[in-house]
Amino acid sequence: MASTIRVRATASGDSTEVQALIQHPMDSGFVKNAKGELIPPHYIQQVTIEHGGKPVFVADWGPAVSKDPYLKFAFKGGKKGDDLKVSWTDNKGASDTLTAKIQ
Amino acid sequence: MSSSIWNDATASRRAVLQGIAVVAVVGFTGIRFGVTEAFAAVNDKYPEDAFKQKSEADAIKSLYGKTAEKSDKVKLDAPEIAENGAVVPVSVSSSLPDVTSIAILVTENPNTLAAAYRILPGTAASVSNRLKMAKTSNVIAVVEAGGKLYSATKEVKVTVGGCGGSNKE
Q: Residue B102 is part of which domain span?
């Protein structure tokens, strides 16, 4: 199965810009379905991005983050070809991990 | 001789069975706790309580245990008018030194805290994401720098129904 995570990490000089797109419904628990029943909350709670085995960025998310969340940030110290590990866990205990190369 | 082979066989079989048992236990606890524990080990826990707060003051207090002061060094980038409240692009950056955390709150949402980011050493004090907004609301960016809290606020108008135009000037 294809990963739920798509990452583009680009190193330019000292800084590495990371863009991540995750496929996830991010149900808030406030929205009703066609039958008028509440869709139970189902959202990513934590995203961790690691470089060289050390976390560089941690996101704590509530249900107010949009469906198929997008994230952009930058960190120092990354080089072309380095591994960047992105992982998430949601409120139902599901998770996914992807290791991408910095370009 | 034959007895020693027999013993070896039982020993190795026992070892295999124990191995399976250990793997099973580790496997199950790994699924139940390993993932969250692993995160907790390197970072702080997921701030469950902060995400349940209804007011921005309570959410900030629950997350940081202090109050924020307004600062023009916190830059909050959000649209004046969002045609689709389900996807509102919001960016926060700061020129303050020693930024350790960035939080984004939407005051009119059922729970005000939308996202909190931990900025680890070497990471730039800048983040972009997309948030859901129930209706027209103030968006607050909170930046923790050098142990103090700074904030910036911007109102984002959300046009009802997602068809756009109806609330536009």
A: 48-162
Q: What is the pLDDT of residues B21-76, one digit of tens each?
A: 555 444 444 444 444 433 333 446 899 999 999 999 999 999 999 999 999 999 99
Two tokens at B9?
Answer: 């066989």
Give the alpha-carbon dihedral of A55, A51, B101, B35, to 10 degrees. Answer: -30
Reference A88, options A98, A101, A73; nearest CA is: A98
Q: Do A60 and B129 touch (CB under 8 A)?
A: no
Chain A residues near residue B47 by CB distance under 8 angstroms: 60
pLDDT tens figures, A32-83: 888 989 999 999 999 999 999 999 999 999 999 999 999 999 999 899 999 9
Interface test mutation site (partner B, options A16, A26, A56, A60, max chain B beta carbons within 10 A): A60
Restricting to B residues 42-101, those with a Cβ less than 8 Å away from any Cβ of A are 42-43, 46-47, 51, 86-88, 91
If asked whether residues B59 and B115 sit together in one domain, one would say: yes
Dihedrals phi, psi of B72, to nearest 5 degrees: -85, 0
- Which pLDDT value is given to residue A91? 94
What is the ipTM metric for this complex? 0.92
When divided into structural domains, chain A yields a total of 1
Round to whole Å and give the CA distance between A7 and A10.
10
**B79 shares its domain with B4:** no
Instruction: Judge if pTM exceeds 0.95.
Output: no
The answer to the question of residue B168 being in a domain is: no
